[in-house]
# Entry
Amino acid sequence: MKRILALIPAFAVLFALPLPAQQSSPPLRAGAATSVITPPLGESIVGGFTPFPAEHIHDELHARCLVLDDGKTKVALVVCDLLGMHRSLAVEAKSLIEKELSIPPSHVVISATHTHSATNALYGEVRTYSSDIELTDYQHFVARRIADGVRRALNLLRPAEIAFGHIDVPDHVFNRRWFLKEGTMPQNPFGKSDEKVKMNPGAGGDNLIEPAGPIDPRVSFVVLREPGGPIISLYSAYSLHYVGGVGQAHVSADYFGYYSKAVERILSSEKQDPPIVAMMANGTSGDINNINFREPRLRKQPYEQMQLVADDLAAKVTGAVSSLEWKASAPLDARFRELDVKWRTIPDELMKWARETEADAPRIGDKAVLPLAYAGRVQRLAQASPETKLPVQVLRIGEICIGTSPCETFAETGMEFRDRSPFAESFMVELVGGYYGYMPTPRHFELGGYETWPGTNNLEPQASVKLMDALLEMATEVKTVE
Ligand SMILES: [Zn+2]
# Structure
């Protein structure tokens, strides 16, 4: 008995010993999956001014999902083959994810690629300017499929290493806003020809002076692999609006889909299961497209140009993967805000123009399509609900910072965030968590052109400045908190 008692202090010492030292940063885990979000035929393709019903599926649309877990925090990145998504769709998908998977909405980044061959998910049955709408059946379906994709990615979480890279591919991006020679500026739909900049001027025209803004040639990418083993996922962003050139009334994921497939094909090991999931989010491409305006445009077969762009980007990005530096951990963090940004105000004079244009439409005939479209948009914008609840997010993945915008954001905004962010490596993804039209910088409002027209731009001219301030504040917060 005495001997047993004598053992007690020894036990006590044993229990008092500190626990084995915890690893300073727990190992990272990653999982990825895709959900098909192809719409039923007959749904409206809404990339142009006049919607038309989808008649054929050229390639399936997907929500491509990646989940990361650092042991404490989980984040989800989702890229959807959509022109855009209404805020209410993103809210619904995030609330399903929170309820069913316990990942908070602030930690879920859902973006649209901006393929112009997808059907309507960016407004409800009618086009209004409201941050909250009743979802259509298709929007409900997409939200459900996003949540299911994130759940499947979560099911597939496994130990992972992470690497970040970027390459410059200037070949496929062109600024589409041009200064024109004096006297050659056409009238805008509002009947004015006093603007300084023209969007998409005729390619190879002799009235072109120079583009009104820069291009951002950078492809940024994050890669996950099983430790020393197969690639799990590659998430990338490039500032290219879309490519286009599809068959008549086709549904297609555009170059974003071709690129993802090409990356998966190149990086996949034989019979890899679960399969790699690659995705291309849209960077900040509101003023950037794939048309080289300095030369006349050549006619191409449907899908030819987007395949060319996708294959080249996939070859260059995958070519850079072998020289990346891999890490076994990456602290994760996120911030989310709804900004108090105002809808654009519609002056009385513009309302008068809108009413007169509608009354005058039968007389103008064919030429009334654009003015009529804007007359409708201007009047609906004037009735916009007071709050935009503009969703803005920042995601920290190790030493990388991703900032988001819910607008068609200009290239210079993305480059400014990269330059001013407290992280060595940052990039922006646009069309995240909602759709609020174009977001020119204040300088571009002075120049005018399509992207600045009320109804193409829906927010106050200071919106890009408010966005940048919020992004930089949130980036500083996630930088300093360990
Ligand atoms: Zn667009």
In short: The radius of gyration is 25 Å. Residues 114, 241, 408 surround zinc ion (CB under 6 Å).
